[in-house]
## 1
Amino acid sequence: MIKKWWHDKVAYQIYPKSFYDSNGDGIGDIPGIISKLDYLHDLGVDIVWLSPCYKSPLADQGYDISDYYSIDPRFGTMEDMDRLIAEAKKRNMYILMDLVVNHCSDEHEWFRKACEDPEGKYGRYFYLRDKKEGELPTNWRSYFGGPVWEDLPGTDKQYLHVFHKKQPDLNWENPELREEVYKNINWWLDRGLGGFRIDAIINIKKPLSFHDYEPDRDDGLCSIFAMLQEARGIGEFLGEMRDRTFKKYDAFAVGEVFNEKPEEIPDFIGDNGYFSSMFDFNETIFGHSEKGWYDAKPITPDDYKRCCFESQAKVKEIGFLSNIIENHDEPRGVSRYIPEGDCCPESKKMLAALNFMLRGLPFIYQGQELGMENVPISSIDEVDDISARDEYRVALEAGLSPEEALQVIARSSRDNARTPMQWTGGENAGFTAGTPWLKVNPNYADINVEAELADENSVLHFYKKLIALRKDPAYKETVVYGALEPVWEEKHNLMAYYRKGDKTLLVIGNYQRQGQEIVLPAAYRKVLLNNYADIAEENGVIRMHGYQVLVLEMEES
Ligand code: GLC
Ligand code: CA
């Protein structure tokens, strides 16, 4: 594997709208991010990914872009963005933007021109079909519910949108469109960006020609995955994009990729992969159901372990996964992967260490380093997330009571991750001097940056230690490049693995409230991390405390 500049880094995702509001309008902004760069630098973060802050009607919170060359005034100005890049550089940090090019906004100029002249140049930027009364071109269901087809205003055509109707899909089969995309990427890289996180990219290749699939719900529609399954040849687009853009700049590109086949991994993230890295979503997609969120299966500690190890085994040393426990599309990792009722600083630290010490690039989502949790909701009216609102309806239609449907939403809503960052125990968690755009999680009085900085035993300090270990010259080679080897895989509620490089590290997490005994396979030399003050050990037998996690440096074998 060829070594790359970003391999030993630590990445952090910012959801700008909810990070820090500098001017009291209730919306986080770029000047707010700049004012918190020192906080991130002090934590040990090197790469910062910003969810979209381009000009947008915010129908899908910025994932609907109406101008790829400007910053939305709610988030700041282009000068602010340039200043952010420059300030980051001063601290040896890199800024990534979100590349959202499967679709644009229906308020983008291209779309407006397509409406004016569907047979012209810009009509070919989209997927348009003649409208037939009482019949849709295909029966595909969009990710956010309902059919993927919508009338093209002022015409006798319909356009395709795999997400919201305000997010028309761009036609990647058209070379002119692809040129526009590459031009935009290079324009940003020339401004000094470190690279991109690449949104929803698996959707850019559609099987031509379009046709129906077997319906999978009573609505007569089928999941969008049916058509993705059939699509072939995405590699040609992705390879071209890499060669025309990222590669020339040695930029970092991390893809939102779900459905790759094991044999395609070298193409995606090998030495000359389409991307530098891709997220490991194996845990986040576990238990999903075609029927909807209400039918999802909860994940247990043993499932979590199996998901992580499966991904590790699939990727081996071919490339680098980007490891996450949450992002802006998921509930909080601690609320999801820790059994109900057991969320506490110890269990949060255990989950942090088990995830962070995996082979790959660790991504922290804002607030994760504090142990931020899901937000309680008392009514669907409080919910902002468009996918959650649709899933609520789906759950009701499936026969759940409003209370049950609300529980489903509380568990899975994307709002869980989007509540404002908790900076202090003061009003609105110190996020804004105005009214926050989304309700602050009421637990901010205990869980916030200020309180956790002051407490040596906080989750935040534990994250700092994890990051420091990844960067420690004595252990770096092993933590970054060492092979991962599962240990005691069959042991219930225990997740353990070796990282083997020039050192041998053993990571052990007792993934339950009760104690558990393990017999060490060899003596250890040093305790590198422990979320308790002690180790209950006698003659090579360790009685692990509830949710204890250890990182041990072992004697060479
Ligand atoms: C990705 C984003 C998500 C967005 C969708 C459409 O999945 O992470 O937030 O809604 O793409 O752009
Ligand atoms: Ca603001």
## 2
Amino acid sequence: MTEMTCIEDLRRLARKRVPRMFYDYVDGGSWTESTYRANEADFQQLHFRQRVACDISQRSTATTMVGQAVSMPVAIAPTGLTGMQHADGEILAARAAKNAGIPFTLSTMSVCSIEAVAQATQRHPFWFQLYVTRDRSFVERLIERARDANCSALVVTMDLQVFGQRHKDKKNGLSLPPKPTLRNLVNLATKPRWCLNMLRTSNRQFGNIVGHATGVDSIKSLTQWTQEQFDPRLSWQDVAWIKKRWGGPLIVKGILDPDDARLAVETGADAIIVSNHGGRQLDGAPSSISALPAIVDAVGKQTEIHFDGGVRSGQDVLKAIALGARGTYIGRAMMYGLGAQGERGVSTALEIIRNELDLSMAFCGRTDVRQVDRGILLPRQ
Ligand code: FNR
């Protein structure tokens, strides 16, 4: 098989191997997908200052995120249905992250449960992403379960209290398990590897929810459940309440505006993630990379700024770090690796990004990712 040398290679292979509805769930954004496209495209507007004849023989990409050592400023973003890209997807991605020395974030909407991931990774700490539901006792239980599983940071997602429509998911009739329509059966017949792996696992449902929240056993009822349960009254008081209950590092995800960034800081966020949910929610919102500088200017001295959206290479990571992010997250880049080659594919994605980051930093004449600043970028024309 041809060698996987960039994230685009992994994407192409994932498209071949993952059933259509689950591939489309990943590779798409809301409505016209303009924000989804801008997330990637706007990185191209930034240009590096190449420098030469600096001693670049000793280099390090190691840093910290919320006080925890990371081998590079990249974490795995929380993504729902990861266990449908590949059987046991969350477990495989968590293992790849552990081996790479970076954080793995488990979504509330994962297929493998908090407990299953903890067990499969020998209780190596991972991060847990929380959605706030109307049923606060369910939120409390999730926080307890994350604590019991040795999670070392909690990520509260703020930008999914209502849903951005994704046309493809609607048209594909995204469901779990896939409905046995002729179209789905024909498509599944072309993915024998995926089917075989899926038959071998018992992780085929929403592990954090089924059996923990009543009346949820398929994505149809789950969509209904989320629409009924995700609380549109979510407020900063809720975040303060979660922080108190959790007691550990709290990361607030889904910030695009400096005013919200200030409120997050006032509420005690240990870090915020500048994110538009990978262009899956408010279409027409700015790309993440274009929103980053104003937020760094507003609160960069008071809190740690994390970043996601459109990261497909180590160059993208470096640009976000240059603009003031302490760390970045990858959603789709991880999902493509997973869909293409399981755990090995996620490890490959991380290795590709690490090499690109390291070499690009060297081309800019820098040797330590912690020292990277706006000076490595050309002023914008
Ligand atoms: C997501 N994202 C997400 N975020 C979250 O907080 N909880 C979730 O369950 C999900 N689910 C999810 C599914 C899929 C398929 C994608 C692509 C994304 C958003 C995710 O955490 C992150 O913000 C984006 O993925 C970042 O953009 P890139 O890296 O995918 O371009």
